[in-house]
Amino acid sequence: MATHAAGGSHAATAVRSTGKPSFSGWTKLAGALMFFGGLLAVSSGVAALREDAVFASTRSYAFDYSLTGWGWVHLFLGAAIAVAGIAVMLTGATWARWVGIVLAGLGMIASFMWLPYFPLWAVITLAIDVFIIWALCAGMGTRSQPST
């Protein structure tokens, strides 16, 4: 019995000494959603830059910005989210999770401001960003604890 406990603590120490972060399936899912959501934001930004006729425009919205300007915002923000999603999926590092949370928060703001141009897509991306933030925060609480 004592041999088994010693072997178990040795294995826990070996896992801990590798320096590799432990991350959950929720974190990997959040990274995948960030990657694909970032690619979709990039395509949305390109569509806004190429043709203004793709999107609806309302004059009575409180925030009246240039569609071309929002195209550039979505293009760069989407690229950053996709790269951060790759970092979260591959490493699960704490810095990548924090970057993902910040970028998903910025994505939520951009989606809210995008409402007058593409309302259904903006609501969907808002919901995805909320889920990404939840999954990244929930994943931070799952660390391997050494067995005693």
From TrEMBL:
Residue ranges of every copy of the DUF7144 domain listed in the record: 26-138
Transmembrane segments: 29-49, 69-88, 95-114, 120-141
InterPro entries associated with the record: DUF7144 (IPR055568)
Any one Pfam family match given in the protein's UniProt record, by short name: DUF7144
Domain of life per record: Bacteria
Bias-annotated ranges (Low complexity): 1-14
Protein name per UniProt: DUF7144 domain-containing protein
Organism: Streptomyces nanshensis
Taxonomic path: Bacteria, Bacillati, Actinomycetota, Actinomycetes, Kitasatosporales
